[in-house]
Design goal:
Elements lengths: L1 H6 L31 H10 L11 H19 L13 H12 L24
Length: 127
């Protein structure tokens, strides 16, 4: 990831890396830690109900809420360092749901966004 950042001209933070639990992977309930084959079933329900918690799955709106609050907290903390760049590292589902917030898209449409490959940089700005 560091190589990808440097190749893209993103300056890396010279201080401590911050670990943040609000970037944790979405909880997939009874399918958590299991086969990827169940993801599509969850995503199909996401499209019609971003508040669903079927089979103990964390809702899309819950993921969006915790990641949005994280962004607001980061902005508050680093406001004095304008301009600044933050590099957020998380699993694809979390990042794509967070991206819907930046683009002001209904979070139930998170799977309509281009897939995030491993260690992909994607610039997020409020749209």
């Amino acid at each position: 990831m560091a190589d990808a950042c440097l190749a893209s001209g993103v300056e890396l933070y010279k201080g401590n890396v911050m670990l943040e639990t609000r970037l944790r992977e979405r909880y997939f309930g009874e399918w958590n830690g299991g086969s990827d084959e169940f993801y599509q079933m969850v995503w199909d329900v996401d499209q019609t109900d971003p508040n669903h918690v079927e089979s103990g799955v964390e809702s899309v709106n819950s993921v969006l809420s915790r990641t949005t609050q994280l962004i607001l907290d980061i902005e508050d903390e680093f406001r004095a360092l304008e301009p600044h760049t933050c590099i957020l590292v998380a699993h694809g589902d979390v990042l794509q749901i967070m991206q819907t917030g930046f683009q002001k898209i209904d979070c139930s449409k998170h799977r309509s966004l281009p897939h995030l490959e491993t260690a992909t940089l994607r610039e997020l700005k409020l749209g």
